[in-house]
Inverse folding.
C-alpha cells in the first residue's frame, strides 16, 4: 500500500509543478537565458532559507543546552564544552570528500536549471535521459549477475518500450520546432550559417537536460547524494553567482517592476519550493523500483499536460492518451500485485512464527518434565532409607 501511495504522491507533486510552470510561462515571458538567470536567483533564495534554518537550529541548540560554569575570581570559565570534530584518515580522503560535495553541487545546480517544465522540450529530454540512464544501470547490474534484476528484465523492458514510444512521438512531432525555437530564443540564425560557438550553445541547451537525467539514474549514488545534499547547496550558489553577474541591472529592475506581487512571489517562493521538493523526491527515488515510479509519473504527467495544453490533432492526442493510459494501468496493476505478494509473505511469516513458538513451548515443557523426574529420582532413595 505504501508503494501505491508514494507513486500517486509523486504524480500529484509533478502535476502541481508542471501546471504551475505552464501557468507561469503564459504570464512571465522570458527567453531561455533569462530563465536560467531566474533559476539561479531561485537557487540563491533556497540557500538563504537554508542558512536561516541552520542559524535557527544553532540558536535553539545553544539556548537549550545546559552548561556548567565554575567561577574563578572575576572570570567565568565554561566546563568541558562538547565540540563535534570531523576527522579524515588522510589528505586523499579529504580531497575525495570535497570533490564529492562539489560534484553533487554541480548535478543539483544543473538539475535546477533543467527542471523548467514550462518548456516541453526540457521535460521530455530529461525523461529521455532518465530512461537511458536506467537502461544502462539495469543492464550493468544484470551483467554483474544480479538474479533479482535478471528476473525482472521482461517487465522492466515493457516500461522502457512505453516511455520510449512516448518520447519518440514527441520528437517526431515537435523535434524540428524545438530546434527552431531554441535558435530563436538564443538569437541565432539557421544552423548552416552558425559558427561553432553558436552550435555549442544550441547543443548545450538541448542536451543539458538529457545529460542531467542520465546522471541521476545511472551515475548518482543515493548514499553519496543524501550525505552531501545539504552541503552542496553552497556549491550551487558559487555556480549561480557568475551567471547572475552576466546580466545587467536593467534586467533585474525590469523583472521586479513589470510583474505584479503575486507573480513575483510565485517566481521566488512557490516555484523554488516546488523545484526543491521535486529534486528531493528524485534523490529519495534512486533505487530500482522507485526509479520506475519516477519514470512512470514523469511520463504520465508530461504526456497528459502536453496533450491538453498543446494544439495538436485528435489522432495525435489519442495516441498520446493511449500510451499514457496503458502505462498507468500496467504500473498500477504491477504495484497491486507487489502489494498482494507482500501481504501473502507477511501472513506466511506469521504462521511460521506461531508454529515455531508452539514447538518451543512443547520443547520447554518436555525439558521441565525431565528435570522434575530427575529431581524425584534423586530424592526417593533418601526417603526410603
Amino acid at each position: 500500500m505504501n508503494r501505491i501511495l508514494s507513486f500517486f504522491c509523486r504524480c500529484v507533486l509533478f502535476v502541481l509543478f508542471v501546471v504551475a510552470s505552464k501557468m507561469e510561462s503564459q504570464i512571465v515571458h522570458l527567453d531561455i537565458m533569462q530563465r536560467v538567470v531566474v533559476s539561479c536567483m531561485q537557487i540563491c533564495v533556497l540557500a538563504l532559507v537554508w542558512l536561516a534554518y541552520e542559524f535557527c537550529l544553532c540558536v535553539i541548540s545553544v539556548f537549550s543546552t545546559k552548561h556548567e560554569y565554575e567561577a574563578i575570581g572575576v572570570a567565568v570559565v565554561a566546563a568541558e564544552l562538547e565540540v563535534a570534530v570531523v576527522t579524515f584518515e588522510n589528505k586523499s580522503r579529504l580531497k575525495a570528500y570535497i570533490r564529492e560535495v562539489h560534484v553533487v553541487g554541480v548535478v543539483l545546480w544543473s538539475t535546477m536549471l533543467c527542471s523548467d517544465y514550462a518548456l516541453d522540450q526540457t521535460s521530455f529530454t530529461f525523461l529521455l535521459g532518465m530512461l537511458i540512464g536506467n537502461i544502462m544501470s539495469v543492464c550493468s547490474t544484470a551483467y554483474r549477475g544480479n538474479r533479482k534484476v535478471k528476473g525482472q528484465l521482461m517487465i522492466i523492458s515493457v516500461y522502457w518500450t512505453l516511455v520510449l514510444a512516448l518520447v519518440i512521438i514527441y520528437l517526431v512531432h515537435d523535434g524540428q520546432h524545438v530546434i527552431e525555437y531554441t535558435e530563436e530564443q538564443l538569437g541565432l540564425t539557421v544552423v548552416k550559417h552558425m559558427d561553432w560557438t553558436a552550435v555549442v550553445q544550441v547543443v548545450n541547451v538541448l542536451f543539458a537536460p538529457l545529460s542531467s537525467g542520465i546522471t541521476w539514474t545511472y551515475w548518482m549514488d543515493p548514499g553519496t547524494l543524501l550525505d552531501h545534499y545539504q552541503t552542496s547547496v553552497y556549491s550551487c550558489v558559487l555556480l549561480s553567482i557568475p551567471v547572475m553577474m552576466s546580466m545587467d541591472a536593467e534586467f533585474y529592475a525590469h523583472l521586479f517592476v513589470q510583474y505584479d506581487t503575486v507573480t513575483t512571489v510565485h517566481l521566488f517562493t512557490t516555484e523554488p519550493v516546488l523545484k526543491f521538493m521535486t529534486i528531493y523526491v528524485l534523490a529519495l527515488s534512486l533505487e530500482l523500483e522507485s526509479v520506475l515510479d519516477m519514470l512512470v509519473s514523469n511520463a504520465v504527467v508530461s504526456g497528459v499536460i502536453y496533450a491538453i495544453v498543446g494544439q495538436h490533432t485528435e489522432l495525435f492526442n489519442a495516441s498520446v492518451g493511449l500510451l499514457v493510459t496503458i502505462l498507468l494501468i500496467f504500473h498500477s496493476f504491477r504495484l497491486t500485485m507487489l502489494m498482494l505478494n507482500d501481504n501473502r509473505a507477511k501472513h506466511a511469516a506469521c504462521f511460521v512464527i506461531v508454529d515455531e513458538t508452539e514447538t518451543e513451548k512443547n520443547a520447554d515443557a518436555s525439558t521441565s518434565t525431565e528435570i522434575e523426574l530427575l529431581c524425584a529420582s534423586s530424592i526417593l532413595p533418601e526417603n526410603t532409607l
DSSP finds 13 helices and two strands in the chain.
